[in-house]
Amino acid sequence: MKPWQENRRETKNFFLKKQEKGLSLNASPWTTLAVGKELQNLVIDGIIKEGMVAMDIGCGIGIETMYLAKQGLMATGVDFMPKTIETAKEIAKLSEANADFICDDFIEMDLEKYNGKFNLVIDQGCFHHIPVSERMNYAERVYSLLFDDGIFFLRGFSDQMLPSPTNDGPIRLTSDAIIDTFSKFFFIEKLYRFKNIPLPNSNKPQIFWAFLGKKRI
Ligand SMILES: C[S@@+](CC[C@H](N)C(=O)[O-])C[C@H]1O[C@@H](n2cnc3c(N)ncnc32)[C@H](O)[C@@H]1O
Question: What is the pTM (predicted TM-score) of this model?
Answer without folding.
Answer: 0.95
